[in-house]
Design brief:
single chain, Porin, 12-stranded antiparallel beta barrel
């Protein structure tokens, strides 16, 4: 789930067209820290979408870089299908790890399902997977559900809840504005820990650029 289309965590069962690429850039602001991400993705073969990106986290007195390498594919479904199934697998790397810390810190995989309803005005995606934290030697079952509602031809409302079996669930909601059809989108969201007034809170803003027919 870590490599889903930012700023959201739950992934949809869809991939880029063959020969197309996507570039995501964004910022997340938490209490006491903020994060920048750069996530380019391409479909070179038509069957698998590959992402190789970076996240830079700035906390009080420290900065750390995280790298993500992810593959995503489909079992069933196409652009015109009412539902589709897919998979995603990836790893997170922490360069410069020393001592007992591992350079590849997390490994994850998820099963993806997407269904469209109400004449494609509503899309619901669900993920179920696993994540292994190799530094902490912790395995967790991960999950997520996201709904996208078309409010207008270029405006979507998005609501999501996600988490794992070891921590409190989280949620976020926001808007996606299509600035240039099939080319550029703007996302803004606000998120928090479920059922907590003093827990984790954040807001995000991100841009997504798409380019078809590059290969």
């Amino acid at each position: 789930m870590a490599g889903a289309a930012q700023p959201y965590v739950t992934d949809d069962a869809a991939i880029l067209d063959e020969g197309a690429c996507q570039f995501e850039i964004g910022r997340q602001v938490n209490r006491g820290s903020h994060e920048l991400w750069l996530l380019p993705a391409c479909n070179f073969t038509g069957n698998v979408e590959l992402t190789l990106g970076q996240s830079r986290v700035n906390e009080t007195g420290s900065t750390r870089n995280l790298y993500v390498l992810q593959a995503k594919g489909l079992f069933t479904g196409d652009k015109d299908a009412a539902q589709s199934w897919g998979w995603v697998a990836g790893l997170l790397g922490r360069p410069g790890a020393t001592g007992d810390q591992r350079a590849v810190s997390d490994v994850y995989a998820s099963l993806l399902h997407t269904r469209t309803l109400i004449q494609d005005r509503l899309s619901i995606s669900a993920n179920l997977g696993t994540r292994a934290d190799r530094n902490e030697r912790i395995n967790a079952t991960t999950w997520g559900v996201i709904a996208e509602i078309n409010l207008a031809s270029r405006l979507l409302f998005i609501a999501e809840t996600f988490g794992d079996d070891r921590n409190h669930a989280l949620h976020q909601a926001g808007l996606r504005v299509v600035l240039v059809p099939r080319r550029m989108e703007l996302d803004v969201s606000r998120g928090a820990e479920n059922g907590s007034r003093s827990g984790t809170r954040w807001w995000t803003i991100g841009l997504r650029f798409n380019q078809e027919g590059l290969f």
